Amino acid sequence: MLSEILLPTFNHVYDTGVAIPRCVTRNKLTRMGRRTLLKSTAALFGVGGVLASASRPARADHYDSKIHYEPQLDNENLAQLSVQSHKILGDGVKLDFGDHDGYVRLFADDFARVSVTEPGQAEYESPGVANGLDEWDAPTFGAESTSERIVLETESITVDISKDPFGVKFLDADGNVVNEDYLDKGTSGYEGDKPYVYKKTDENEAFYGFGEQPDMGFNQRGEKLENWNTDQYGYGPDSDYVYSSVPFFVGLKDTGAYGIFFDDPYHSVFHMADESDDYYYFLADGGQLTYYFAYGPEVSTVLDRYTDLTGKIDLPPKWGIGLHQSKWEYTAQEIVDTAETYREKEIPLDAMHFDIDYMGGEYNAFTWDPDYYDALQTLNADLPELHSVAVNDPGVGKTTEVNGEPYETYLEGTENDYWVKDADGDTFTAEVWPPEAVWPDFSREEVRSWYASQHDALFDAGIDGVKNDMGEPAVFQKNEKYDWTMPHDNIHGVGEDTIRHEAYHNLYGLDYARAAYEAFEQYKPEKRPFLLNRNLFAGGQRYAAIWTGDNVSSWEHLRLSIPMMLNLSVSGMPFVGCDIGGFVNRPSPELFARWMQAGAFNPYCRNHTDSHRKDELNGPRNQHPWTFGEEVEAISKQYIELRYRLLPYLYNAFKTASETGKPVQQPLMFQFQDDEQTVDIDDQFMFGDDMLVAPVLEKGATTREVYLPEDEQWADFWTDAVHEGGQTITVDAPLDRVPLFVKMDSIIPMREIQQYTGEKPLTMLTLDTYLDEEVSYSFYEDDGETRAHENGAYNVTEFTVSTNPGGVVTFEREHEEQNYDDSELSSYLLKLNRSEAPQKVQAAAAKYTAVDDAETVTETSETYTHSEEQNAVLVHIPADEDNAVRLFFNGQGRGPQGQGKGRGH
Ligand code: GLC
């Protein structure tokens, strides 16, 4: 039972500490906050400290009233393209449609691009593309043509192009149609200025991806999805679009998986069989018709290809994947107190966030309020291991002075004419957090570099990471076509590169991330960047992690966070998280406990919440693990600790993601695409390759149904019981338990708990092993912090555990790479789960010593024990043991046991 908690009424506990403005003389830190002064005065006069934002309408009002403009096709006016002549190229074919040109290019034997351009116009590659055409070697292919068709054939796919009407069909090597244009309404092409493509589908086809979509379901068949980056405070399943745009999806059908990336940053719309079960189509409000086709048949191959094109994530610094704590409108003192409370309560924590409150004046980017500056110094002195992340916003206050000092960011940007222009060519000025702001034109390279250079104000103060917010770009005003952003006819770029805002809108956040990424290159070239963006386009993963914006503390939002993050993961963005506990409003104790349990398995793990000064707020001032009573605190701690114990496993999953685009948090269909049951599962996921998580998403639930994919056996992480796959089981899920399963034949590398990543060197690696027949695991290790691994400074060790006839279990390890000299890893704790006691353990002729308890094994090399409590054998193996280590079991084999005992995980 949850303990009864008395929740303080937030407006009685609002900080009334009077901050007396002081002069801070450091460069760029001299911009003492006018806001600080106002705050002090407000507090003195007892007006609740409502400052700059008090003059604005409540944000919720802003967001209720958005215009919804949606580009649509006039079906009477679709194109009727036909190929009049063609020319085979070194990498495909050029098509002549008379009034348009067309290209089908082969990037690889399973990857192609189709474009329809104005005559003579180059094929478009958006800034989302990291490796464009020039970076690829054309595959070997055969080309044939008849009066009716042109056929390009590689080792993996055939592209069959019909000439009249123009249509493209992709077939696999066996001649099965994987994807095909739907020609009943016309051909693909342009309706007016709108590029579009119609494709055939059948009712068995499922669709995933589409970037950031706030839907309750994961499979998007039957849905309409839009891409228009929008600041959607408190969005919900009915919101048409949210913060980021990725016009990419994966189709999954009998022939396997394929992917389509519609590389058009304009407002795009995907109708995924929402009108008919026979076709789907996608269109955009302008731009060029260019899309990429990636053939699987595995979903993983499609994602690998897509991220070869748009980029993979950087391997994050380890502290970036520890727990982060954040809140809008913490007082400066609260930031310090919160961090210290984490340490006192021994709940692991890696980073505190500084929300916009730290900025000087009225939210002026790259300036400091002295109180927050001091708080940062206190934190860095008292808890030097703790990392700090500063929020940044692109709207630069239109003010020449902050805290009585020249506001260099505004002055320099103005002097160099770096701001976005309105339709008349004048600097665009509007309200965002500053009452009057101007926006850097990130489409220009020199503006990005200059903006990057401003970050010394953050880094010199001691900030480690950056959270880029409001880059949709969010603007607090209504417009003719889209609300709460810039007018669609604003101007970006100079000279020949000038484009209207509607063409660039969805790229603004990407280039904003690119500029901030450059700041890390300028100021912290040795360190791996930690950058978090709310607003991205396809390819943004190569600069930043992403979080799903201003969600709500509700059961519905906990539920929808899962498919939302999974679809982002399938959109090439594996470094994804949601605000744990919900941003808008406050969760109940039960909801918080359930969210913390689920969120411990988010790739990016941050507890963040809205200001306590919201009228609609119903709950406590803060949203800390200890806010909701002892039971919830204990549960939160348990799951945060589990995440920290799993750090080696998690970090390895990130390493794989950085190499192949494989999600860290995988939808079940990612690994089990042949199991039809997984197609629609949107309330469970795989955490890495081997752990299945089924979070409890319903109020009051104490059991939960879990589907276990077929052709595998699954061990319950808590009880050790093994279940056959291909069935749905009901498991106990009291408040302190999240259903968690491990695939048999897997090794989960774990370690001791730390209060922050890097607190203690990794000296002993636990190999939590679930053995059926044989399992191998490649363990990657590096310094977790610098870019040295990019030059080879890492180790890879392969572990194999196998069971042989006659009841012998063999452990072997092989060093595959040994270039990370600072590794302190000196031993492995092999934990063979679900095991009886072995008769003996030995490496070659050397016998390991049997001891009585787990603690002695942990402390003493070449020992082992059988733990009744853990239902496991534990063996302490020195890392320099070159011989195979054998566990002898009575000559009768030690196959899986039946229902196991609790192991006190
Ligand atoms: C936006 C962000 C949120 C942040 C707030 C104040 O709403 O999404 O995370 O706390 O702005 O900066």
Automatic annotation (TrEMBL):
GO terms for biological process: carbohydrate metabolic process. InterPro entries: DUF5110, Gal_mutarotase_sf_dom, GH, Glyco_hydro_31_C, Glyco_hydro_31_N_dom, Glyco_hydro_31_TIM, Glyco_hydro_b, TAT_signal. CDD domains: GH31_glucosidase_II_MalA, GH31_N. Residues 661-748 form the Glycosyl hydrolase family 31 C-terminal domain. Residues 105-269 form the Glycoside hydrolase family 31 N-terminal domain. Keywords: Glycosidase, Hydrolase. Residues 765-822 form the DUF5110 domain. Residues 315-652 form the Glycoside hydrolase family 31 TIM barrel domain. GO terms for molecular function: carbohydrate binding; hydrolase activity, hydrolyzing O-glycosyl compounds. Belongs to the glycosyl hydrolase 31 family. This is Alpha-glucosidase. It comes from Halogranum rubrum.
